[in-house]
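We read letters as residues; the integers encode the fold. Take this protein.
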Amino acid sequence: MRCPNCDSENNDSAKFCKKCGTPLKKELSHENMINSMNNKSGKDDTTKYLIVALAIVAIVLAGAFVYIYGFGSHQSNDSQPQQIQSADDDSEPVQAESSSSSQASQASKSTPKTTSMSIRGGSFTTGGELEDKTYASIDVGSQHAGEKVILQIFYSRDGSTLNNGNMVPVTVDSSGHLEVSSADAYKYFPDFAEINLYDESGSKLLDTKSVSLSPEAGTQTF
């Protein structure tokens, strides 16, 4: 080993120059430098591999946690409403249908179904004052007692309509008559009435009749 100060040759193990006393620094050989670099590089690679492995493990654990506590619980919640919906679909509609059928059956038993019906006759009664209502009693036959229909009557005087012709639901009484009064007050006594008789739904016209009246108070039959 040469002294960097006086360039004297010294033993490799010497710490100071034997001539000038300058401290001697050992220089690494080329082979030692390569080995040192390789050792350092190996340590760095090991550290990198360890970090990558830990990162992979952390990702796997995080994914498992999300699946178990996230997707798993969500799937459990989704299955419960399906069971409730299934219960609703299987039981309640059947009960509702049964209840509806029962009500329809009771209604059909309590209310006779409207059959063919015609206006046989009747009467109109008007009070003594101009604003009095006109009452109608329409005979359709006692065989229709209890049946429900809709009655519409248009009143007029000298060709001018006196009311709106409201469609009024009426039930045939035990004597076979339909009793109804107009919903309007009149300025004049009617001299004409048009009677329209519909089934309970109001979609089928069962009969119609036109009646001429005397424009005066009292009861008039037809």
Q: What stands out?
A: Helices lie at 30-90, 92-110. The longest helix spans residues 30-90. The mean pLDDT is 77. DSSP finds two helices and nine strands in the chain.
